[in-house]
Amino acid sequence: MNASLPLFVGLVFLLLPSGVRSAPTAAAAPRPNIAVILVDDMGFSDIGCYGGEIPTPHLDQLAARGLRFTQFYNTGRCCPTRASLLTGLYPHQAGVGHMVTDRQQPGYRGNLSDRCVTIAEVLSAAGYRTAMAGKWHVTRYTEPASEAEKANWPRQRGFEHYFGVIKGTANYFRPDSLTRENDPITPPAEGFYTTDAFVDNALQFIDDGDRSKPFFLYLAFNAPHFPLMAPAEEIARFRGKYRVGWDKLRAQRHARQIELGLVDKAWPLAPRPPEVKAWDSLTPVEQDRFDHIMAIYAAVVAHMDTAVGRFVDGLRQRGVLENTLILFLSDNGGNAEAGPDGRCVGQHPGSEDSRVFCGQSWATLENTPFRRYKHFNHEGGIATPLIVHWPARIARGGQFRTQPGHLIDIMATCVDVAGAAYPKEFRGQAIPPMEGRSLLPAFENKPIQRDALFWEHEGNAAVRVGDWKLVRLGRDGPWELYDLKSDRTEQRNRAAAQPKRVQELAAKWEAWAERAQVKPYPAGDPTDTGVPKKGKKKRAVK
């Protein structure tokens, strides 16, 4: 697992009352290492420091020593989120407005555009070493991969080293698109698990190479994406713990979120959707099946937390944790694909030969206290935890940051802390300016100055200006209007009472959609949620 990536040394700051340290002059301050950790299909409330009951002590410790953002957003789906995170653009501008199929419109080509730059490309030019371990999923993939597809693999988009899976869905024990650098490889027959292998390689990348330079590392777990898999003994730890059911667990998570100060007690818990049955109405056999499904999910999340802890300990042992900015977040909300019943196929659920999806019922718990799921632009689809850990700059941990932020801000933040220059042109192509804003002011609990945040996926759409959010279901759905300051769980639609505000926000969204390559829309049905509709056969999607 040899590769190349350096270590870096500490940074000295003066303490400010806000709990954030102020750097000395740029000439004297060494630049920080940066590690972006992305998890896959994890809901807003799953980890302990965001109200969950799944044991995540290592992430909780990062939060206790760092910052937690309460209003940070992704794009509601895996491929668009990765494209947006990597480029600092809205996903359609990067060519990945839907998934990795070519839908014959500029915003939907299913390949990372050559008219954008990645964080790795920008930081490489600024003297950073760059590496990635984990799930890529921003290019079309066939077996064997064509040279055109490889043009958008990590090594061709700014990463000096790469180990991971190119495709979207991976078997945790036997992934079929496993790649080292530019070469597909076969995992060993025994002892392989993606979550652990990604961390092993990330630490190896840090150990090798020119240690006089700072590093940028992108660690993208496939956990806890379906098909859910974990070691049998870890699943066994959680068996029986979910027989209390989603109704009581949602209430418990919501109460913890209020106690933590994460959510306002004035925001009611979103009601259980009509498609999801009351837990007490299920038979004991049904309850046991659902308990088994969630035990597997919990084992996957807990194993991921242990891996994050091992990664952080590795940084500490190497003497670089103090001056490493760590950003931890999820690519979308909890996943309702496979519908209310979920899926649990295989003689040994959770093994490499099984097929397990949480489904809509447990996704309703995962997204507590919000409405809806992955694919959608209501808060349950797009709200993510964001943990920020940077001991050299954040002096007093455990604080919340309520400033709204978005994936587009990750590029701007990296450029800011690295002292890098974002280009106007790259490889002969004009590059759109960054859409995001640096999060550094928010680290100091100052506002982030911006006009609006925007979303679109499969016709679902939203725009947020200040505390007001306009959101709809599908291209033809009516706009709904919510005051997120008083109603973050989107229970009181204000559209009828404020038609002028609806009109203004809708016009703002339309102008953005034209500018950001959301339009023209691709042909065909834009809806691919995996949640069954009345009269239609349910389907599972990546």
General description of the model:
The strands form five sheets. Strands 3, 4, 5, 6, 7, 8, 9, 10, 13, 14 and 15 form an eleven-stranded mixed β-sheet that branches. Strands 18-19-20-21 form a four-stranded antiparallel β-sheet, with helices on one face. The chain is built from 13 helices and 21 strands. A hairpin with a 2-residue loop joins strand 19 (460-465) and strand 20 (468-472). The chain has helices spanning 57-65, 78-87, 119-125, 147-150, 194-207, 232-238, 246-260, 284-317, 359-366, 379-382, 408-418, 440-443, 499-515, and strands at residues 14-15, 21-22, 33-39, 67-73, 129-135, 161-165, 178-180, 183-184, 215-220, 324-330, 343-345, 355-357, 383-389, 399-401, 405-406, 425-426, 429-430, 453-457, 460-465, 468-472, 480-483.
Keywords:
11-stranded mixed β-sheet, disordered N terminus, 4-stranded antiparallel β-sheet, 542 residues, 27% helix, disordered C terminus, Alkaline Phosphatase, subunit A, alpha/beta
